[in-house]
Every structure is written in C-alpha cells, then in structure tokens.
Design goal:
This protein has 136 residues and is mostly beta strands. It has one helix and twelve strands. The strands form three sheets. It has a five-stranded antiparallel beta sheet, with no helix packed on it. It has a five-stranded antiparallel beta sheet with strand order 8-7-10-5-12. Strands 2-3 form a two-stranded antiparallel ribbon. It is globular. It starts with a strand and ends with a helix. Bound molecules: thymidine-5'-diphosphate.
C-alpha cells in the first residue's frame, strides 16, 4: 500500500514553504469538501470506519500521528510528521488514526460532501463488503 503515501512538492525559499494541491493534478479526484481535525488527544484515536465510495487525501499539516490503512487483506501504518506527506485513502479502506501529538492538525480533502450513508462503521460489515467485491 506504499502507493497510498504521496510526497507533495513544496515550494521553499528563505521565507518558508508552500504546497499547492490542485484538482486531478497532484490529487486523483475532484475535491468537494475540505475539513480538518484539531484539539486531538494522544489517547483518543479516531477513524475506525471505511467509506463505500468516498476518496480522501489526508495531510498532517502540524504535529504528528500514526495513520493505519487496512484494505481487508493487509494493514500498513504510516507515521505522519511532515506537511509534505499525504495519505491517499481510497474507498473500501478501513482507517484508524492514533498517537496524536499535542499540536496535531489533520487536513482532509474529500471527493464528496458529507454523507453518513457512505460510512461503514462496523469492521465485520467492512470485511464482508471487501469479500463481496473480490468475488465480483
Ligand atoms: P467522523 O468522520 O466519524 O470522524 P473521525 O473519522 O475523524 O473519527 O466524524 C465525526 C462526526 O462528525 C460524525 O458525527 C460525523 C460528523 N461529520 C460531519 O458532520 N461532517 C463531516 O464532513 C465529517 C467528516 C464528519
């Protein structure tokens, strides 16, 4: 799942750094929604769901955390500690976010508007859906 880690190109000079993300250029979907997670607590993990069709790009723009991706067959943990690293989270991927540092902020770019019906919040239902897809 290493293709899920995207290195974003930064424009850096003596004043600092800048990263631009543009629809369908360095992100493989059109962005319909942007949100961010902040005030995160080290002992309060988040995520624990997959999406039926939503795609997301997640960037730890401040601080650090661990991001776990699980496609129902294998699992990989990414340590995010740089605004130049982005996680591409495709549909039907279970995600967990853990070990937030006190200043962690996660920026999320999403391919669609918020829709609770797109969530799979039960891990066993997720595994059944992955199996169903692979039987098609
Ligand atoms: P959720 O996606 O479960 O958070 P996380 O994966 O970070 O643990 O969302 C938490 C709550 O916020 C849930 O009640 C749904 C709501 N929510 C919205 O109303 N709009 C949004 O765009 C998002 C992402 C969540």
């Amino acid at each position: 799942m290493n293709r899920n880690l995207i290195e974003l190109k930064d424009i850096t000079d003596e004043r600092g750094s800048l990263i631009a993300i543009e629809n369908l250029k360095n992100i493989p979907f059109e962005i319909k929604r942007v949100y961010y997670l902040f005030n995160l607590e080290n002992d309060k993990p988040r995520g624990f769901h997959a999406h039926k069709s939503l795609k997301q790009l997640i960037i730890c723009i401040s601080g650090e955390c661990d991001f776990i991706l699980n496609n129902g067959v294998s699992e990989q943990t990414f340590h995010l500690n740089s605004p130049t690293q982005a996680i591409l989270c495709e549909s039907l991927v279970w995600r967990e976010m853990i070990n937030f540092s006190s200043n962690a902020i996660l920026l999320v770019l999403a391919s669609d508007f918020y829709n609770e019906d797109d969530y799979i919040r039960d891990y066993n239902v997720f595994l059944d859906m992955v199996k169903g897809e692979s039987n098609d």
